[in-house]
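Blackboard transcription, Thursday session:
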Amino acid sequence: MADDGLFPRRLGIDTYQEPVAYLRQDSPVCRAEGFNAQSRVRVSCGGRSVIATLNTIRSDLLAPTEAGLSEAAWRLLRPAPDERLCFSHPRPVESMSDVRGKLYGRPLEEAAARRIIRDIHEGRYADIELAAYVTACAGSRLDLAEITALTRAMVDAGDRLDWGRPRVMDKHCVGGLPGNRTTPIVVPIVASAGLLMPKTSSRAITSPAGTADTMATLAPVDLDTRGMRRVVEQEGGCIVWGGSVSLSPVDDTIIRVERALDLDSEGQLVASILSKKVAAGSTHVLVDMPVGPTAKVRNPEMAQRLEHHLVATGEAMGLAVRVHTSDGVQAVGRGIGPALEARDILAVLQNREDAPGDLRERALVLAGEILELGGVAAPGEGLAQAGESLASGRAWDKFRAICEAQGGLREPPVARHRHTVVAMHHGTVAHMNTRSIAKLAKLAGAPADPAAGLVLAVRLGDRVEPGAPLFTVHAESRGSLEYALDFLANHPECLSVEEDLI
Amino acid sequence: MADDGLFPRRLGIDTYQEPVAYLRQDSPVCRAEGFNAQSRVRVSCGGRSVIATLNTIRSDLLAPTEAGLSEAAWRLLRPAPDERLCFSHPRPVESMSDVRGKLYGRPLEEAAARRIIRDIHEGRYADIELAAYVTACAGSRLDLAEITALTRAMVDAGDRLDWGRPRVMDKHCVGGLPGNRTTPIVVPIVASAGLLMPKTSSRAITSPAGTADTMATLAPVDLDTRGMRRVVEQEGGCIVWGGSVSLSPVDDTIIRVERALDLDSEGQLVASILSKKVAAGSTHVLVDMPVGPTAKVRNPEMAQRLEHHLVATGEAMGLAVRVHTSDGVQAVGRGIGPALEARDILAVLQNREDAPGDLRERALVLAGEILELGGVAAPGEGLAQAGESLASGRAWDKFRAICEAQGGLREPPVARHRHTVVAMHHGTVAHMNTRSIAKLAKLAGAPADPAAGLVLAVRLGDRVEPGAPLFTVHAESRGSLEYALDFLANHPECLSVEEDLI
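(Written on the board underneath:)
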């Protein structure tokens, strides 16, 4: 009976990225194949197939002739109405023996890295297997040769862009600092100086905004490779979402599990960053690395080790990497959340007086380094040249041209509900927990509600009077606003004012 | 709205041991709490609560007022008809930082081991977190102090039996060898010699039969602690299923993930074995360790390391441990599968001429060692004394008495369908892959169909003629039989006959 296949049923169950299939426990296929709950199964349909985790059904949720699919499995299989689902045992995940080898002390060689990345790419790894892989590489377990092998394997798993130019500039920020949205300022400065900067950015996974989320409030970002190429050829740069271009595609899968486990692997981090850059066809990369107690890179020692790995692995991959460490003790700019960050960006690009100075300064420093790295500014002169591009309006013109080429510049949305938090006493703004601040903006609705988030009215070291505004929470619904304020009541560490002792 | 709670709905979805909760994606609680697919959530009901993984529903599977539970979540929460489910964020799994510490090179100290084991026991670890923990301890990553800390933490997580006797004997077999079912022979020999041997055994997880599965075809094994105590006080021994007694309860959880990953952790293995023994109130333990290329312990070096860890950790826990290594190159006895193994056991206990000699020999050697370890046989005389117990019928009498005390001796069931595989040519039985043989027995239906499995007609080294029976597959349904034979067609390594060269 299994040969005839089962009717596909979209159950509407969202299991995030892990494909799940549902079979009645009393179905002939479960019995014949010896499938149990949590078995890994291969589900085929037409010429397509997917490896899924099985959940068995002990109720009438499914008819005896049906098999269910989770949303992720449905997306991957896309069964047509007349198609049937067939189930079989997947071949064993042979590269798990490479993972075990690494665990038992064998170095991860290039062939092993390729096998692992290929199996992850083909969706053969269950989440627990991904967790084992990520754990096997955690901390400082990968040496330079292993990181390079992994980077190469990750690049080869996806597409690779070629711009036919000797210098293709790129930047990357390690570990988000809320509001540190420099890319939309840096790209037009660099592009208007005649360098190529085809920038792909990500959407937020755990943060209140990714660069793609912020940029999406200003212009369309969902361009495919052809669309992206057209914009870059016309304007010398773009700021698009990397999700519709398949660059180092296993990266997202690996990062998802690392985040869920809150596990850092320095080697995997380097491979993740550089594989995306190599695949994007970049030749010169500036890495922005904020260092601070609540940032991803917590201290100078870790920063130094990471810099060494990034530069050396880059070299092995034919990529010039420069690392810029910066202060990561507080959020950057005023807005946190897609639209609120977009407003800061516009203020900087338009040379407005109320533009946040720290965001402007950070963007100029990074742009200046890229201008030097790209050879269009002499050493030590990049910063001034970047400043001139901004002051003259050239950067703003280029930004508008890029937005138009991507589909049209637009006005960021505005939130319906606001609540301003004020100081209760005289004092000095003493601490900011950037993780809690990010959480607060997320609870207010960012990034799903693009107008949601918060706007800081103060910076560390500012002196405040009782009643002075500290920050304003923006939300699209009263519920989200209240939820954020509830969190705040229990998390005073978001922003703390130390009372004056005098 | 979340405060009023949602109507519990049993969806009948079996996700094995991981509790899963289902909420409509558009439900106020998802929005208010910021829950997404794969979020970890705390589900409360009456005074009970469980940590579950969330799947969100994008269909009408659930009404807006309902929340769904998987079978595992339903079992743990047991909602009454008038009760409602409330959802909240679980407190962070703080012991994951101990797992990360171990990964980053910090030794696992006793307090950390306790925190980890407590969180696993309370169901706070998602499967990927369990995978990370298991991976962090994989291979030889745990030293003696860490193994002892872990063993102690695992014991303390569950109940602990006390028999009020200075010597309580126990045995354990490391890594199954198909058909190696010595316990039901050893226990009556030891008990009839006046020693206490309250044996708890497990059901099969990945093998065609566990001792509890085999024993269940001969007598009831589902006794609770009180019932077990009554049998032991009356007969000096028992052979019951350990599942209804809560001894080192996290062990099953950890083993499930280790098996799914096919990861061995020597330290975790030692802690798993010894924690169950200490919790069972045992004082003297004999460990049977079959060594062979397709067994769990693959070579003498690994056997030696394990023996050292077992003995030294046992010492730290106040447990006398003796290790007996044995040959693990082929299956033991003739039958593989619950009822078929039970028949071998009966043949040995009844001193029947057709009793498999290897099973008899193995059981006697182990029983003899336990008699010496327990001080009722002089060194070197245990084997003879065990043989005498068997030959005289004392062991058989004791076995019957134990079965009666457990609820009554019964006849093992017989399978409806059989297929005998014969030799195709003259030759010698040269190789047996014990893992493939186990797989074959499982595909035939064991252990769910207790009569299913296979009966070997030959042993390694036997010379066979064309047409001579090699083994017979037993199955309850034609479908299972054919499924096993299909597997066999593609896996000739199960049992291979080398052609004579003369």
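Lecturer's comment: The CA atoms of residues 114 and 153 of chain B lie 5 Å apart.
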